[in-house]
Amino acid sequence: xxxxxxxxxxxxxxxxxxxxxxxxxxxxxxxxxxxxxxxxxxxxxxxxxxxxxxxxxxxxxxxxxxxxxxxxxxxxxxxxxxxxxxxxxxxxxxxxxxxxxxxxxxxxxxxxxxxxxxxxxxxxxxxxxxxxxxxxxxxxxxxxxxxxxxxxxxxxxxxxxxxxxxxxxxxxxxxxxxxxxxxxxxxxxxxxxxxxxxxxxxxxxxxxxxxxxxxxxxxxxxxxxxxxxxxxxxxxxxxxxxxxxxxxxxxxxxxxxxxxxxxxxxxxxxxxxxxxxxxxxxxxxxxxxxxxxxxxxxxxxxxxxxxxxxxxxxxxxxxxxxxxxxxxxxxxxxxxxxxxxxxxxxxxxxxxxxxxxxxxxxxxxxxxxx
Length: 370
Prior knowledge:
CATH class of the largest domain: Alpha Beta
Largest sheet: 8 strands, mixed
Distance between the termini: 29 Å
Order of helices and strands: HEEEHEHEHEEEHEHEHHEEHE
């Protein structure tokens, strides 16, 4: 964990000194438990990320998606959103990445139990249940001394995206914008959503109440919520009166539903949206997180070297695997063993040859050699 001075933040300096102060201070990354009676016995698992700067700063609450495979819901960790959290922190935000009820180690019943199962769905009910986790996270964050709770943004991916839309339909005090990355529910397989018409109806219903400015980003090759369906979501939301800027981003990798993981694919778009909403707290970006001085595995090309640098700065548990010039890595996992397995599988997928990959580093250790 990289940590500068813990909250409360330092007393105010002149605004012109902020960037220089940021260079002298560190990024804070701290896993926290949000106490909430509706998430007993564990509360909500969350990750708090910020740069130790003077004064109060706007808050962004991030939230995750949910895998088609229900068994993976128990493996959700807030550290999986550390890359996106660092992006916001570098711009002067206080970030709270929250794991909703029933996912990972967060307490309470998992939201899928509230909306029925396909073919019986109640997307409105399940989304309302999910939104309550975000409300609890925001109320917790209001009490943090470094948070300006008059400027709050919510952002989520997939089921977290539609949950973010749901929050704007009954916004808490201080919510001024929302970002929906590839939001939706009910994906059973590629280009197969259970009862898509019901999902479109929910977006229309949310649009009748939502008046918070939003940015929606979907990819042209999203296999969960493909362009034709995403555009129906957008049209329904706007027909109800919702205010969103809809972006259909270029294809991203093998499945554009993973666009949220590829920050370069949306960085400029989100920057522009936040500036339009006068939500750019710092005029100059703070320095990036320093990379630990750990030598990379031999034989990596430029893409591999960049991936290894990312691997080193991202959160536990994590692992890096190589096969010649092919590589794969995983970060933000519940256990080191899970990180090893996922890094190995990612490497084998990239190498396209079974049995050639080797996990060479775990949790930032010096890479092993063959």
